[in-house]
Amino acid sequence: MVDLVEERMSGTADGAAAQAVIASLSSHFGDRLSTGRAIREQHANTITWLANEAPDAVVFVESTEEVQIVVRACAKHGVPVIAFGTGSSLEGQINAPKGGISIDLSRMNRVLAVHPEDLDCVVEPGVTRKQLNEHLRDVGLFFPIDPGADASLGGMASTRASGTNAVRYGTMKDNVIALTAVLANGEVITTARRAKKSSAGYDLTRLFVGAEGTLGIITSLTLRLSGLPEAISAGVCAFPTIREACDAVILTIQSGLPVARIELLDEVQVKACNAYSKLDLAEQPTLFVEFHGTEASVHEQAERFGEIAAEYGGGEFTWATRPEDRSKLWQARHDAYWACLPMKPGAKALATDVCVPLSRLADCVDETKHDIEEMGMVAPIVGHVGDGNFHTVTLVDMEDPHDVAKCKEFIGRMVERALAMGGTATGEHGVGQGKRKYMEAEHGTATLDAMRAVKAALDPQNIMNPGKILP
Ligand SMILES: Cc1cc2nc3c(=O)[nH]c(=O)nc-3n(C[C@H](O)[C@H](O)[C@H](O)COP(=O)(O)OP(=O)(O)OC[C@H]3O[C@@H](n4cnc5c(N)ncnc54)[C@H](O)[C@@H]3O)c2cc1C
After folding, report:
1. Ligand 1 centroid distance, CA of 248 (Å)
2. pLDDT at residue 12 is higher than 60
3. Which listed residue, 97, 100, 244, 369, has the most CB atoms within 10 A of its CB?
4. Residue 87 scores a pLDDT above 60
5. pLDDT of 313-327, one tens digit each?
6. Integer Cα distance of 108 and 85 in angstroms
7. Does 3 score more than 70 pLDDT?
8. What is the pLDDT of residues 408-424, one digit of tens each?
9. What is the pLDDT of residue 321?
């Protein structure tokens, strides 16, 4: 433990305070408290280009009471507390720039209750989205939010995550009914009951959804579930240009077609997926689509979508009718990030997302594509376009300052463009460290001050995941 303090990173707030917390927790947690360098580094950002800023210790908690013990010890000594789900966030959310204690919630992974008659369930925060759907398989229900990683539901709530199904089923904002959280003073609150709707008081549920662990640690979630559709059909359609693919999306949504998934991959991303996931798609801008409903409604939706696609030069559909073909297709979509890496060996992949009002989607994607070409970058475009949300995965040679500077400039321009179109700096990845600098431009000073006031009221010592969201 003493070694730890000597090993600490520069920028740590107070090494002696962290050591006092570790000493006070060690008898309760035993080998569930780790100060080993490898474990600490695994609990800080490892995915993107942001520097790895490790916490001083990692504690593997198993109950709300244990979260309270850790938070109270940290509050007593003014030491930062950083919640950790699976660590798949992309904007440095789990980094510990001021040191502190990482609370790993992966052992709080029980499904506490399923209420099929109410279409909801109660889970601990460490349950992952795939674990939950495995658990629900026999009751004919599913939880639709599906970020590419098998993330924890606590982490997904905290980043206000979404995924391919959001166009039909909403994001975490729409699917968390209530949650229980440990506040910075160690008190436990539950934000709502299980009723489907309520007008009783401030909506603290939505305040915590997207708070990135800066207001408290979520220790249980009540989630809305959906019925498994009677019929599903998925297909792939290529377009001559990325603008035409986007225009087809816009008309699809504006026509009120209840598409369940509608995902864009540009030709660079299709090429990467072909190689990584052993597909043989035409290397053109492509939409992956899926329809849910009865046999008849799915057929009708697919037919109507085919007509819209044809108006914009969409080619023949390739249908994935068997469940295993559908799984292969969507796994390839979820693996899009990893598929990009071999395109520039040795490079780091920087996934960034923006979201614009649907009517501006084609303009925003098209202008971004031109930027990529003009700047000579490798940056496939992929997106949950039915929501006006898309990503670029920029491959950056971190040893080349010119490449790094170019990438930063590109992301800045992408965010500026989205904001100018009435959009947001991030539709789903969150702010973390990477997007803090855009918050002033997005929200303005008065709104940011209101956010700071909320933060100061709930966390006056600023121990909850400091250095995130608020500039
Ligand atoms: C290949 C890949 C594809 C991805 N695709 C998508 C996508 O399609 N859509 C999308 O939205 N995201 C996507 N992501 C990003 C990532 O999966 C999401 O941000 C996810 O919600 C993070 O969950 P996590 O469990 O990994 O959280 P972590 O990374 O562990 O934590 C994220 C944040 O939440 C906080 N936190 C975690 N648990 C709690 C808790 N119990 N209480 C309070 N705060 C907590 C942490 O402190 C941190 O600030 C992708 C990531 C990868 C690597």
Report:
1. 30
2. no
3. 100
4. yes
5. 999 888 887 889 999
6. 10
7. no
8. 999 999 999 999 999 99
9. 77
Instruction: Output the DSSP codes for 283-322.
Output: SS-EEEEEEEE-HHHHHHHHHHHHHHHHHTT---EEEE-S
Q: How far is the CA of 276 from the centre of ligand 1 (A)?
A: 23
User: What are the C-alpha distances in Å from 26 to residues 38, 43, 378?
Assistant: 19, 19, 47
pLDDT digits (tens, 9 = 90+) for 30-71: 999 999 999 999 999 998 889 999 999 999 999 999 999 999
Take atom 32 of ligand 1 and give the residue whose Cα is closest: 155
- Residue 449's CB is within 10 A of a number of other CB atoms, namely 11
**Cα torsion for 212, 217, 223, 229, to the nearest 10°?**
50
Mean pLDDT over residues 233-262, rounded?
96
Q: How far apart are the first and last CA of the chain?
A: 33
pLDDT in tens, 379-404: 999 999 999 999 999 999 999 999 99
pLDDT of residue 319: 86
Token duo for residue 139: 């009751």
Taking the CA of residue 162 as reference, the ligand 1 atom at the shortest distance is: 11
Atom number in ligand 1 closest to CA 465:
47
Q: Which atom of ligand 1 is nearest to the CA of 211?
A: 44
Ligand 1 contacts CB of residue 147 (under 6 A): yes
Residues 204, 189: Cα–Cα separation, whole Å: 10
Ligand 1, atom 13, lies closest to the CA of 147
104 bridge partner residues: 60, 84
Instruction: Report DSSP letters for 235-249, one per residue.
Output: EEEE-SSHHHHHHHH
> Cα separation of 306 and 117, whole Å?
36
How far does the centroid of ligand 1 lie from the alpha carbon of residue 212, in Å? 9
- Helix (H) or strand (E) holding 393, with range, is strand 389-396
Q: Which residues partner with 59 through β-bridges?
A: 33, 103
Q: Tell me the three state secondary structure of residue 395.
A: strand
pLDDT value at position 9? 41
Cα-based angle 314, 315, 321 (whole degrees, multiple of 5): 105
Separation of 467 CA from ligand 1 center, angstroms? 17
In the predicted structure, residue 83 carries a pLDDT above the cut 60: yes
Q: Whose CA is nearest to atom 47 of ligand 1?
A: 83
CB 96 less than 6 A from any atom of ligand 1: no
> For residue 320, what pLDDT is reported?
85
The CA-based angle 291-292-295, given to 5 degrees, is 100
Average pLDDT, the chain: 95
Ligand 1 proximity of 87 Cβ (cutoff 6 Å): yes
The pair of structure tokens assigned to 284 is: 């053109």
Q: What is the pTM of this model?
A: 0.95
